[in-house]
Structures are given as structure tokens and as C-alpha cells.
Amino acid sequence: MKNKFLKHLKVLLVEDEEKLAILLKNAIGDNFYSFTVAHDGKDGMEKFLTITPDIIITDIMMPKKTGLEMAKEIKKIDPSIPIIILSAFSETDKLLNAIDIGVVKYFIKPFDIDELLEYIESLCKTLESKIIQLHDGFSFNTTSNNLYKDARYISLSKNENKFIQLLLKYSKKDKYIVDDETIKNALWKDEEVSDARLRTFVRRLRAKTSKDLIGNIKGQGYEIIMS
Q1: Which of 50, 64, 81, 194 could potentially form a cystine with 40 if both were Cys, beta carbons 3.0 to 4.6 Å apart?
Q2: What CATH number does the domain containing 97 carry?
């Protein structure tokens, strides 16, 4: 049985061999929240910045930008992201460079697709530590700063996202409740914000998510409800 946590993960495959890219997407793509394909290193870098994946699988030799060049750039942005290399046997000399960059695993072509999926499953325990489980099936990915409901992405505005992160920050400190003034200063710095505007903001966020996700302690402030 596949690990249910896979359904929370976004995978980026960077592979210029179209047949292999299609084969992998068809074989394992449905196991994940999303499985995006890029066809060269430049395209891969652009898609990384757009979708903020949880795992990257990449070929080495590709046009425009090699997998290693792309991996090096990505590791500067997110040192913790797992990068898996797909390598032809003739490219094994380049794998030493991949290890130096921080690639977690490599597979020599042709490889067993089930072994690739099993390896990704083995990463779940580490990746799951980046996911905070919230009330009513909600979860928050602290790497990509994305909110999900039963593994479905919830689109948040910039301030809504900052609000969720602020509430989570206080929950980690065991303070839980964030007072109104702290929220106003964090979301609307240098602006005069009324209590009514804050209440309207929270009400709209609850309508978008759940009325039970954000708790209100009258006269004290707000808290996020954990699972």
C-alpha cells in the first residue's frame, strides 16, 4: 500500500527524453498531489520557481541548462529540497559532482520505476516533518508555505498566508493566541487598521477555509486550531 502522504507532495520531473517523461508521469504521477514535467534545465528552473515542488527528479545532460547546473541553483534557494538524479551509465563520472551539490540519490538508466517510487516513499518521514497537520483535514507545508485541505491546494492572498504563518509561529512557542495589535502590525505595517477591518479579514479567511480553523478568544486575539 502506498504511503498516503504522497498525495500531499508536488513532484517536478526535468527530463528531455519525451518518452521517458511520459512513461514516468503515467506510471507514478497519480500517486502525488501534482507531477509536473519540464523538458530542459532552463524550463525546470522556471517551473521550480513557479510551483515550489517538494521533490525534484532530473536528468543530467539536457539542453539550455544541465541537471547539475539547475540543481546547484536550486540548492542555493532551498538547501533542504530532495533532488534525485537520473543518469546514463556513461555519465557516472558526473555523479561525484552531484554528491557535492547535495543530490540525495541517483538512478542509472534503465532503472526500475517501482524502486524510484519506493525511494520517494522512504523520504516521506523527513518531508512529513515539514507538514503541520491542522484541524478539519487542513495542513500547511512550511517549506512551500502552502495551505491544503485534504491534499487540495487552497489559494491564499499574501496577507492571508502571512496571517496563517503568524498563528503557526505562536503555536510553536506554546503561546497560541496572537493579539489584535500584533496581527495588525504584521499584516498592515504603518497603516491605521480598525478592529472591524481585522474582523472582516478573518471572516473572509474563514469563509475560504473553515469557520473552525481560526479560533477567536474574545478580548485576547486569535489562534489556529491544530489537529
Answers
A1: 64
A2: 3.40.50.2300
Encode burial over 96-120: b for 16+ CB neighbours within 10 A, e otherwise. Answer: eebeebebbebbeeeeeeeebbeeb
Position 92 scores a pLDDT of: 64
Nearest to 15 by CA among 35, 41, 47: 41
* Judgement on whether residues 109 and 186 belong to the same structural domain of the protein: no
What are 114-131's pLDDT values in tens digits?
999 999 988 887 777 677
Q: Are residues 164 and 220 in the same domain?
A: yes
Burial category of 121 from C-beta neighbours within 10 Å (exposed 0-12, middle 13-18, buried 19 and up) = middle
Structural domains counted in the chain: 2
Q: Is the pLDDT of residue 175 over 50?
A: yes
Q: Is the pLDDT of residue 1 over 60?
A: no
| 63: containing domain | 4-128
Cβ 13 vs Cβ 25: under 8 Å? yes
Whether 92 and 199 map to the same domain: the answer is no
Q: Provide the 10 A C-beta neighbour count for residue 90.
A: 10
Residue 55 C-alpha cell reads as: 521533490
DSSP state letters, 7-39:
GG-EEEEE-S-HHHHHHHHHHHGGGSSEEEEES
Q: Does residue 186 share a domain with residue 115? A: no
Residues 136 and 43 in one domain: no
Mean local confidence (pLDDT), 11-25: 94
